[in-house]
Write a structure and sequence with these properties.
By secondary structure, the protein is mainly alpha-helical. It has a domain at 14-65. 37% of the residues lie in helices and 5% in strands. The chain has three helices and two strands, in the order αααββ. Strands 1-2 form a two-stranded antiparallel sheet. The longest helix is centred in the N-terminal third of the chain and has 13 residues, at 14-26. It is globular and about 35 Å long. The two termini are 26 Å apart. The mean pLDDT is 86.
Length: 78
């Protein structure tokens, strides 16, 4: 049997998404949080998938991101 969600899925309204991205842009950090959040909102990727994505996983011509498992190292996220 396919897995069924045990909790309700939260769907953000457009204005909520805009506020989240604006807050991320205003954040003074080394990490580009606004880019990560935009990719998450557009793709539905999970946190670990986003944080472990490398440039080689992105095909700009085909407009795709390859999500592949990474070995656990000190450079990868859970």
């Amino acid at each position: 049997m396919p897995k069924a969600l045990k909790r309700k899925v939260k769907v953000f309204a457009t204005d909520e998404c805009e506020r989240i991205v604006k807050a991320a842009k205003d954040c003074q950090a080394d990490l580009k949080w606004d880019l990560l959040i935009l990719v998450a909102l557009m793709t539905g990727m999970r946190r670990g998938e986003l944080l472990n994505t490398i440039w080689a996983n992105i095909d700009f011509k085909a407009r795709t991101i390859e999500v592949s498992p990474k070995k656990n190292t000190k450079h990868t996220w859970d």
